[in-house]
Amino acid sequence: xxxxxxxxxxxxxxxxxxxxxxxxxxxxxxxxxxxxxxxxxxxxxxxxxxxxxxxxxxxxxxxxxxxxxxxxxxxxxxxxxxxxxxxxxxxxxxxxxxxxxxxxxxxxxxxxx
Amino acid sequence: xxxxxxxxxxxxxxxxxxxxxxxxxxxxxxxxxxxxxxxxxxxxxxxxxxxxxxxxxxxxxxxxxxxxxxxxxxxxxxxxxxxxxxxxxxxxxxxxxxxxxxxxxxxxxxxxxxxxxxxxxxxxxxxxxxxxxxxxxxxxxxxxxxxxxxxxxxxxxxxxxxxxxxxxxxxxxxxxxxxxxxxxxxxxxxxxxxxxxxxxxxxxxxxxxxxxxxxxxxxxxx
Lengths: 113, 222
Fold this sequence. Notes:
The complex is a heterodimer.
Chain A: H1 3-20, E1 26-34, H2 41-53, E2 61-67, E3 70-73, E4 79-80, E5 97-101, E6 105-112
Parallel strand pairs in A: 1-2
Antiparallel strand pairs in A: 1-6, 3-4, 3-5
Helix pairs in contact in A: 1-2
Chain B: E1 3-10, H1 13-29, E2 32-37, H2 44-55, E3 61-67, H3 72-79, E4 84-88, H4 97-104, E5 114-118, E6 135-141, H5 148-151, H6 153-157, E7 161-165, H7 177-187, E8 193-195, H8 204-220
Parallel strand pairs in B: 2-5, 2-6, 3-4, 3-5, 6-7, 7-8
């Protein structure tokens, strides 16, 4: 729903990094999309594609990596990947869990010339 | 010669920075800020209206209303007797820290005890965007069904308080309080679940007490 705004924010970071590193050409960007990032990967890729096509580097490729949700149990410390939305710790049955991975939407790296 | 630049930057970094700035301002002013989120029609505005009517003589309150269009909600809150600023997001599905920064320019934060931000009616996107608030409140209601917590786990997982509105309609629905509590506690074992009806006033006092307690904690931070 808000992937266009996220893509624009991501693209602003790309443009400012290009300026900082005096890049002439952007070959590729690596983006990590967590399962709980609130961004839909397809919509994000679509929006990024539009921004790239309209930019100084229309040939840049987007490499999107999906990060599944990983939780850690606050009671026993076990880390696990929940099946569906069963967020109960498989080790001790604990309910108090925190996400350790899968929340992020991250601009991981740029490949430039 | 191609080279790789490692960044590992969060994409919402700019928004996070603004939210941090907001949190600092709220703390310096000693104002308690709650971010209310929930589906359209859950009763977020009704909860604020009722809160305004009951607390305005005791605490200095203000609100910010987020909607796609119209200033209907802001007028409702103003009619209940507290200052309110409307933000229209156009097509935007959530309020952003930038919009809150603009909206608070009209308030003297130090002259307020509590500021309520009513997010755009949506159980998905608002959960992803920090507005510098002290607490996040998810407002849900019995006609929505008791399984909302497990269908929208992110919003509930990040909440500090859950309000279940329209308990006066329980008998007219298939809503199971027991199942709802189990689903919420499955995501957040120790979260307060405040069951109330803005229409009849049942359960409102527990909510008002929660607000009073949070505001005392916020005032200590100054």
